[in-house]
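Deliverable D5.2: sample structural annotation.
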Amino acid sequence: MICPHCHKNGSRVVDSRPSDDGMCIRRRRECIHCGFRFTTFERFEESPLLVIKKDGTRQEFDRKKILNGLIRSAEKRPVSMDQLTAITDHVENKVRSLGENEVSSQLIGKYVMKELKGVDEISYIRFASVYRQFKDVDAFMNEIKSMIGNDKKQGGHND
């Protein structure tokens, strides 16, 4: 493994543990040349998964896109990076467990919103406003009213 600090090849594994619901191995490494410590993740190689976009084009599934969207939606909110990574992991696992070679971006967005809604409602609204492309304030308000109505039905308020 090439060290990200000194760029020399050679490191030793200091610690290994399962991560992402056992779907990958987190390894803590130390460079044998400069002593720099860094983390790597080992995942099994998956078959390509294509995402069908709204315009009908297809592109390879990229978990970084989900994570980046979540990071933007949770900016300045009390949501940890661990929570965002966990949402990304759950969504990726759910999509891959479908056993399909292609999945729609709309389905991925629904999975993300379902996970995010339980973590932070403001981040959820931010994500939904981009994902659903609200055409006007009325559409935006309808989504908020829907959330408020669901919250009252569940008998509480999430703070």
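Annotation notes: The helical segments are 63-73, 81-97, 105-117, 121-131, 137-153. The radius of gyration is 19 Å.
The annotation will be released with the project's public dataset once the embargo ends.
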